[in-house]
Amino acid sequence: MSRLRVGYVGCGFMAQRVHLPNLAAIPDCELVALAEVRPLLGRKVQERYRIPRLYPSHVELAADPEVEAVCVSAAFHVQGEIAKDLLLAGKHVFMEKPMAISIPQAEAILAASRQTGARLMVGYMKRYDAGNELFRSTLDGFRASGELGEIVYARNHGFCGDWTAGIDTPVETTDEPAPASPAPIPSWLPPEFFKDYVGYLQQYTHNINLLRWFLDAGDRVQVKHVDFDSDGYTGIVVFDMNGTRAVLESGRLSYYRWDEHTQVYLRHGWLRTWAPPLLLRNAPAEVEIYRGGETQTFTTPLPKDRWSWSYKRELEHFVRQVRSGEPFRTSGEDTLTDVRLFEDIYRAYLRNRDAI
Ligand SMILES: NC(=O)c1ccc[n+]([C@@H]2O[C@H](COP(=O)([O-])OP(=O)(O)OC[C@H]3O[C@@H](n4cnc5c(N)ncnc54)[C@H](O)[C@@H]3O)[C@@H](O)[C@H]2O)c1
Fold first, then answer.
1. Which of 15, 75, 258, 318 is the most exposed place for a label (fewest CB within 10 A)?
2. What's the domain count of the chain?
3. How far away, in angstroms, is 20 Cα from ligand 1 center?
4. CATH number of the domain that 160 lies in?
5. Can you give the residue range of the structural domain that contains 93?
6. What is the Å distance from ligand 1's center to 35 Cα?
7. Do 286 and 132 contact (CB within 8 A), yes or no?
8. Statement to judge: residues 35 and 55 lie in one domain
9. What tens digit of pLDDT does each residue of 319-346 get?
10. What's the rounded Cα separation, in Å, for the pair 82 and 299?
């Protein structure tokens, strides 16, 4: 089978620090085209990765018949529009999260995918972390065997910290200004809360997406209670996820690492996973299993893929699934639930404040 011919849109931080190096290291694909609206930056990155063609925007790249699939990382509200255009041009797309900042935007992107049959994967790399995969398969096993009883509670704690593990600049920079692109504010959201809404969404879309996957919840999720400080960020959300009470704890901590863990309690034990700082390469999440009952044990199993990076594994998945036609673990359709939940969380928060 020939290598998948991939294009890339946007040469900013995530492209340079994460996705382009990872794509360049995946033998089953080749980078054939790049698009960047800042021409000098585009040229520098093109030269660094020796990518044959550079386009002034995603529109020209979308018309390149040689490109089979495209990866996109741009501003949070722009990348969904770029993805929509690429899907309409028949290209399979991997895009950074968030897919969209409102349900109508998400639905328009998914309609484009349905129209041409081109498929969309969204960058929720935590679902591809080898430690998190071990967590999920172990939990599935417990669920099937009943060894530790039924699931009684789940929580994700995310107080942030330094996600960059000390890396904070793109490799190539220029003085060219970033493109101006005002964000469309969802119709139900008072504009003065838009910044808070996006700040919360940008961070915790990952945590909710991961919790849903651990609990195999799909779209069977409801927001039951929201209790935030007036920053619209610090606090808790209580969900019903597939019949399990799940709590998301959000906050900011000046931690030098990354303060995030997820725990699922069963009647006779628990599973716990600690996230690594996101840009720390080749360090999967750490997993602990506690078995209660007659013989009590703690184990800390290691995933088979011990030295691996979630971001690289997500792009390997993208390339593999595009080539095989198999579904994506983090499809656009699945992500629609995350978009809905963000609207529900913020509506509940604003109702608590009598702001809507
Ligand atoms: N998964 C994660 O852990 C994670 C972490 C950080 C950021 N992100 C997401 O990644 C996205 C990108 O973040 P970033 O820091 O790389 O952004 P960035 O601003 O550094 O880079 C975006 C680049 O896209 C270019 N661009 C914009 N419109 C374009 C177009 N139409 N055609 C071609 N190029 C275009 C810009 O000029 C810019 O260089 C954000 O949406 C963010 O939510 C995800």
1. 75
2. 2
3. 12
4. 3.30.360
5. 4-124+313-330
6. 12
7. no
8. yes
9. 999 999 999 999 999 999 999 999 999 9
10. 45
Residue to mutate, 36, 169, 310, ligand 1, most ligand atoms under 8 Å from C-beta = 36
Q: From the CA of 163, how far away is ligand 1's center (Å)?
A: 16
Whether residues 318 and 225 share a domain: the answer is no
Peptide bond into 98 cis (omega under 30): yes
CB of residue 72 inside a 6 A radius of ligand 1: no
Contact 277 CB / ligand 1 (< 6 Å): no
- Ligand 1 within 6 A of CB of 12: yes
Quick check: 166 pLDDT over 90? no
Indicate the SS3 state at residue 241.
strand
Please give the share of the chain, as a percent, with pLDDT higher than 70. Answer: 100
- Which amino acid is residue 275, in one-letter code? A
Q: What is the pLDDT of residues 244-274, one digit of tens each?
A: 999 999 999 999 999 999 999 999 999 999 9
Whether residue 304 is found in the same domain as residue 323: no
Question: Do 28 and 138 reside in the same domain of the chain?
Answer: no
Give residue 2 CA to ligand 1 midpoint distance, Å.
29
Residue nearest to atom 21 of ligand 1 (CA): 12
Q: Say whether both 202 and 267 belong to one domain.
A: yes
Q: What is the mean pLDDT of residues 127-156?
A: 98
Q: Whose CA is nearest to atom 38 of ligand 1?
A: 12
Residue 318 sits in the same domain as residue 295: no
Residues 269, 290: Cα–Cα separation, whole Å: 5
Q: Which atom of ligand 1 is nearest to the CA of 42?
A: 39
